[in-house]
Amino acid sequence: MSRWSLLLVSLALPVLLSCTESAVPDSGFDTAAFADPPIGARPWVRWWWPGNDVDATAISADVKRLAGMGFGGAEIQAFDAGLNRNASADELARRRSVWSPTFYEHLRAALDAAREEGLAIDLTLGSGWATGGDHVAPEKSLLTLAFSETRVTGPGPAEIPLDGPDLTPFYKIAQPLDAGGDKLARWRPELAVPVTVLAAHVVGGERSTNWLTLDDQLQLDPASVTVVEAAPEVGQTVTWTVPEGDWVVLAFYAMPDGEYPNFNAQVEPGWVTDPFDTDAVAETLETLLGVGAGLASYEGSPLTGLFVDSFELKVERFFSRDFLEEFEARRGYDLTPWLPVVMVPGADNNLFDGGGLPAAAPFVFDDPSAGLGAGDERVRYDYQRTASELFVERFADTVRRWAEERGMGLRMQAYGLNVDVLAAFGATTVPEVEQLYAGGTDLFLKLGSSAAHLYGKPICSAESFVWPGKDGYETPALFKAAADKLFVAGVTRLVYHGFAAQPSQADAAELGSIGWHPFSNPYSGAGTYSSLLDLSPWGGLGPSAPYGSGGGLNGYVARVQSALRQGQPDADVLVLYPWLGFPASYTRLSGRDELLFNGRFNPDDVDPSSSGAMAAVTQVFGDPVLGARGEWIVALEPLLAELHAAGYAWDWVNEERLQAAVAEDGRVRIGDVTWDAVLLVDVPWLAPETAKHLADLAAADVRVAVVGTLPARQPGLADQEAGDATVVDSMATLMAGPRVTQVEPLALASTLEAELGVAPGVRFWPDAGGLRHVRRALPAGELIFFSNPARASVATAVELPAGCEAPTWLDPWTGAFFAAELDAEERVLLHLGGLDAALLHCGGGAVQVKARPTVWRTLPVTNWTVAQEGEPFVEASALPDLRDVSDLATTLAGVVYSASLDLPEGVEGATAELDLGWLDGSPVILRVGNTRILDLEEGLPSAPPFRVAVPAGAFQAGTNELSLFLGAPPFANWIRATNDPQAARYAERPLAPFGLRGPVTLTLFKAEAE
After folding, report:
1. What CATH class is the domain 3-28+779-852?
2. Short-list 313, 311, 309, CA closest to 76
3. What would the DSSP string read from start to end of 549-603?
4. What is the average per-residue pLDDT within 416-422?
């Protein structure tokens, strides 16, 4: 079989191929929206402002530029990041005046320009993150639960002054930083309000003298817990008669956690708004965006929503002034005597979570030798679950309702805190994930898309193209691979990270050609992040074809997004996610081969976990402690990989939505979406309500697969024995169901089909290994997006669901349709090159289907030379990485590749395809002889697949000279050869891959294919 017969992915051949009408049943797919995507289907971009130091005219020009680059919307973030803190008083005054009358003037100028260009705008709620500012009083700010510890020995009297909580390790680190540098949090014990005072008998354990030790413990006798003072007052001295023995007196306080909103662009950054206080949240909304902002006429269009960034909070323990009352009402018991066991150091501090620090509760009731779990762990779960519910109700619901009442919506990154992430996403209008959090692993990304499917959200967005240390190393190939990774994870709107508005009076001597970019300049600190979208045209990231609305990367993204928003999600199984939060420490895992984990893209990319800040954390605290949650996720990965390889698609599900599921013809329905089965993988617990409902679903013929052990208890403490018995009994009933089976690990896919009758949505013949796919069910058809996350090509045949009529390939680069070629078994032939992707449609109605031309000859293109400024430099038949060619690695002039081809008679009427193999960089001009065939603005490919359509008449019989001009190398290379003020920042960093790598082949097609 010829190579062309397997080439069933997008080929830009509209000028080459004849078109024929093919009438097939109408699937309900909007072909017009795919061919010419509406502006609403285009990607968005994160638009950074240097605080309020902007110019209205320049802002309007930026909007026009973003529209011309093919973006459909922008998210405004006005903050003080990566800027000179010692700038002149005038510059600081301009910058640090967000939420002032002039800021709203600038904002309205942006909205006026957006309305004219048809762009949508989301506005970040607050400057920087988390939401807050100088309008937030300490009493309306985020609270932490803190405590003081006093050891006493009885019998005899003891006096305990209530003069505030003990300084914790986090605040010991934060205090010196409060005086300068990157401020973390203020220690304000004078604002602490006593909650209760307890005493307990110490029966074991000891305290470490090293204040960095976070896992030392005292064992307490739970029967001895005494309330010393139920209603303490500020400044009170508590007197208590100590019984015989060694005791500890614990005074608990509600205290403003003192953390600063990150990068807030105000003179006084203020405090973080308390997300557990509905009034405080409403006050922030009205203060920042109420009547005084003058935005009413823009609400809904073009101001479509509010954006809330990830909650990287630095609180010791979430708390609210009514937490104890809410806890008892929701969990059914008094938390007070259990408070000692919930005080894990940094339990709700994202820095501790991200570092995977080995912290443990300083007090335990359970016998350590018997292991935790009898009570302590259950109470901590109940505590976190209560905080989760309050967060969803009081913050997410409040902000969303406020926005929706004004014709807008809430887009929110509901992670970076230990809550029910799926439920928190479900409380938004648009759930958003990102490629930086947790290393950008697929397992995290799918939490956002799964929530969209479970809670009926039409769009899941992602903060895209952001990785540590990749600033200046971006290429279109990197971006396209990252986009495909997001698409197969279920994301349907990419929000590029990012585009920077320049300060109104930028200092060229400081910022040079880079200008201001918040995460890549001399004031960014040690941690830098991609991507530099505004640094065009270096690296081929310019404002023309790579981002053009009709072609290039943004055209590709818009067409895929348009397609993947149609119909309904179509996955095979639900996988129960029983945890609160997703571990930020996942990013510290090393040695992973997942595409773009921590941004690793090229084979020689350095693993960020082995250098920089993560390496420093490892040196102090050792390897990351993932805990039971992280270890469960790691253990689950090979099972999910098996499902992928077998052609199954899956979604996460939480207990809340599983309790809302109904049985329908042997499937499980939640909202408008159905799945074939529910999968439990070593689930450690289930709520009694969930266990019983799952058993009821199984009795109604819903298929359930259990991998590993059955849950034998509920997670919380209330009615412990009765609840655990309910779980055990329900699981026994479940396992007696007609469509239930217990599965051995790594035999999951075969068991699903053989014993439960759950067939995969697609099958690969032969096994396609690492191929990923995502499906959408159309009213009368199916849409499938395939992605190859490896650099090696994959050839396979795809067995499609029954009823998939007239399978057709949709080309996201051009909007064209190609009839799919079938094998003798009626399977669709699929060939994907490295990091390539393809979009298949079943049942497309009357569409213009292009015929495939017939291959005449395929020829290798070798004998290359490389030239700079017209002079041959090196023979390059092996096509080296130009990083290894010193005079070309950092060229300012670009590089010309030249080769000669001897072609036979008859080639004059033949069309052709030039396959470049692999390319690092961006081609600018392709010539045959002196004839320019394609240039960048005409769609010369700068991302996989690196294939170029060559029209008839380009080649002649005999010797033909072929040349390909590459522009400047990636920015990280190019800047080394300049005198730019920022060049020194790149001097010690590695060079980026650059150059044509091949292998290059030319395929000629018979002339009758014209």
Report:
1. mainly beta
2. 309
3. SSSHHHHHHHHHHHHHTSSEE--SEEEE---SS--GGGGG--S--STTGGG--ST
4. 96
pLDDT band at 443 (very low <50, low <70, confident <90, very high): very high
Both structure tokens of 584: 């930020």
CB contact set of 593 (below 8 Å; sequence gap of 6+)? none
Helices 476-488 and 552-564, interaxial angle, to 10°? 0
Tokens representing 57 are 């005219």
* CA–CA separation, 313 and 281 (whole Å): 16
Whether pLDDT at 388 is above 80 = yes
| Number of continuous H segments (helices) and E segments (strands) in the chain | 24, 50
Token output for 554: 């943004």
Every domain of the chain and the residues it spans: 3-28+779-852, 43-133+413-566, 143-256+316-384, 576-589+624-756, 856-1009
pLDDT for 968 equals 74
The model's pLDDT over 123-146, given as tens digits with 9 standing for 90+, comes to 999 999 999 999 999 999 999 999
Supply 912's token pair. 């052709």
Distance CA 362, CA 625 (A): 17
Q: How much is the pLDDT for 772? A: 96
Q: How far, in Å, CA of 948 to CA of 950, rounded? A: 6
CA distance from start to end of the chain: 22
SS (H, E, C) 284-343: HHHHHHCHHHCCHHHECCCEEEEEECCCCCEECCEECCCHHHHHHHHHCCCCHHHHHHHC
Task: Tell me the pairing of strands 650-653 and 573-576.
Answer: parallel
Distance, CA of 969 to CA of 860 (rounded, Å): 26
Torsion angles phi and psi, residue 386, rounded to 5: -65, -45
Q: Is 775 helix (H, G, I), strand (E, B) or coil?
A: strand
Residue among 682, 450, 657, 463 nearest 569 (CA): 450
What are the φ/ψ torsions at residue 782 (nearest 5 degrees)?
A: -150, 150
Rounded to an integer, what distance in angstroms lies between the CA atom of residue 786 and that of residue 795?
A: 12
Q: Is 558 exposed, middle or buried (CB count within 10 Å of its CB: 0-12, 13-18, 19+)?
A: buried
User: Which residues fall within 8 angstroms of residue 983, CB to CB, at 6 or more apart?
Assistant: 512, 975, 976
Q: What is the DSSP letter of 357?
A: -
CB-based burial of residue 402 (10 Å sphere; 0-12 exposed, 13-18 middle, 19+ buried)?
A: buried
Contact 180, 325 (CB under 8 A): no
Alpha carbons 222 and 767: distance in angstroms, whole number: 57
How many Å apart are CA 780 and CA 380, to the nearest integer? 48
* Residue 107: HSE in the Cβ half-sphere, 13 Å Cα cutoff: 29
498-537 confidence digits (pLDDT tens): 999 999 987 777 888 788 999 998 888 777 888 777 664 4
Closest to 460 measured CA to CA, from 423, 483, 492, 495: 492
Largest CA distance in the chain: 109
Burial 973-995 (b: 16+ CB within 10 A, else e): bbbbeeebbbbebbeebebbbbb
Which helix H or strand E contains 656, and what residues bound it? Answer: helix 655-659
pLDDT of the residue at 9: 33
pLDDT(951) > 60: yes
Which position has the token pair 């960014």? 524
8 A C-beta contact, residue 902 and residue 961: no
Taking the C-alpha atoms of residue 652 and residue 431, their distance in angstroms, rounded to an integer, is 14
Q: Is the sign of the CA dihedral 476, 479, 485, 486 positive or negative?
A: negative
Residues 985 and 616: their CA atoms lie apart, in Å, by 21
Q: Tell me the percentage of the chain whose pLDDT exceeds 90.
A: 69
Mean of all residue pLDDT scores within the chain: 89
CATH class, range 856-1009: mainly beta
Q: Is 698 helix (H, G, I), strand (E, B) or coil?
A: helix
**pLDDT at res. 10:** 34
CA angle centred on 668, ends 664 and 669, rounded to 5° = 80
